[in-house]
Amino acid sequence: MARYEPPPYTVGIEEEYLLVDPATGELVSEQELQEAIIEEVKATVSEDDVGMVTPEFLKAQVEVGTAICHSIQSARDRLRILRTAVAEAAGKRGVAPIASSTHPTARWSHLQHTDKERYAMLANDLQEVARRLVISGMHVHVGVADNEHRIDLLGQIAYFLPHLLVLTTSSPFWQGRNTGLKCYRLAVFDELPRTGLPEHFDSWSHYEKHVKSLVAAGAIEDGSKLWWDIRPHFKFPTLEMRIADICTRLDDGIAVAATYSCLISMLQRLRRKNQRWRNYSNMLIQENRWRAQRYGADKGLIDFGVTQTVPYPDLLDEILELIAEDADRLDCTEEVAHTRTILQRGTSADNQLRVFNAAKAAGKSDSETFKEVVDWLITATVADL
Question: What pLDDT, in 10s, does the model give residues 234-280?
Fold first, then answer.
């Protein structure tokens, strides 16, 4: 019998940054500035070897995406180059990028979307819902070549999405208010249609039938308008994890990408043993999704195998044990272990709240307090470069 060879590993990471004025901490919504930053990065970074930079929905926003990578270290190197290039190009023009899924004080009604046909169509279609999208995220693509395998994994990996969200939270503030949530971004994004957890599909043809029904009815152009927490990418043979906030620290984002990659690998390993992870109902996973969004790591998640709420550090230990073999195979044991550092040091949301509370306790005004939060975000965004 031929020895089983696991499928080749490919990964790609997208990040969205907000542009701020370091002097005031406010967003800078100028398309000429956005375009100048993008053009300089394009001139200094090879798209084929490293990745690309593009405009995003807001004029105060840019997006980067790595080229296809075959190791998590390669993904980190490319993302580091892209973050650095954006920070340097922005700095020359008196602004700074922040890797945060919301801006602490920005008023969505004061901002404008990028003047591109794609974004104009989106704004026209979604109206006020689109205009509120002052949010940024991180998307991680892991290659799964076989269509049937990819759709089977879609239902299994959904269980772990809240566990990954916990590690990435970076959006506790909205329009100058402490929302009480570690991830307010999802509250904004969930106003869009076709968001949240994906449906359960029996096969690739079952999934395609649903997409074709919406296309035939004129509701969507293609699968790119499915904005689920995780989705089969409409163009590439990947499972795109989209639930995550953007991690302010580069190494935190890499740790999450590595953990997601290893979870996919673990499920593939089960498959070749004719085993699988149970498909839990969206009702149950949604409860953990809310707990992750609301509390981060503070209150734990529900282990539906024992129907008990379990402290998040214990759940993380279980996940790391579950994927240890896969982390070894993908050569990312160190990156996966960094998830424990995230818990010890706190996520971006935890640290933003720490800075906020310390400034308030010192008697500082709201404007001074939020300026300190933005200052922390500016520094932390480039800390691991």
Answer: 899 999 999 999 999 999 999 999 999 999 999 999 999 999 999 89
123-139: average pLDDT: 90
> What is the separation, in whole angstroms, between the first and last Cα of the chain?
47
Per-position b or e across 21-39, b if 16+ CB within 10 A of its CB: ebeebbbbbebebbeebbe
Closest to 302 in 3D by CA, of 320, 283, 318, 287: 287
DSSP state of 67: P
Burial category of 16 from C-beta neighbours within 10 Å (exposed 0-12, middle 13-18, buried 19 and up)? buried
Q: By C-alpha distance, which of 59, 63, 64 is closest to 28?
A: 59
* Cβ within 8 Å of residue 239, ≥6 positions away: 141, 142, 144, 150, 153, 154, 157, 230, 231, 232, 233, 264
Which CATH number does the domain 11-381 belong to among 3.40.1390.20, 3.30.1360.120, 3.30.750.200, 3.30.590.20?
Answer: 3.30.590.20
Confidence at residue 119, expressed as pLDDT on a 0 to 100 scale: 83
Count CB-CB contacts under 10 A for residue 9.
Answer: 20
* Helix/strand/coil for 135: strand
Tokens of residue 65, six digits = 């995406």
* Residue 120: strand, helix, or coil: helix
Sign of the dihedral defined by the CA atoms of residues 282, 283, 285, 291, in that order: positive
Cβ neighbours of residue 341 closer than 8 Å, sequence gap 6 or more: 255
Would you say residue 122 has pLDDT above 90?
Answer: no
Helix, strand, coil tally for the chain in percent (to 5): 50, 15, 35
**Domains in the chain: boundaries:** 11-381
pLDDT at residue 1 in the model: 42
Mean pLDDT of 105-128: 84
254/78 Cα distance (integer angstroms): 11
Least confident of 4-18, 104-118, 367-381: 104-118
Other C-beta atoms within 10 Å of 385: how many? 12
Mean pLDDT of 313-334: 98
- Between CA 260 and CA 142 the distance in angstroms is 8
CB 263 within 8 A of CB 158: no
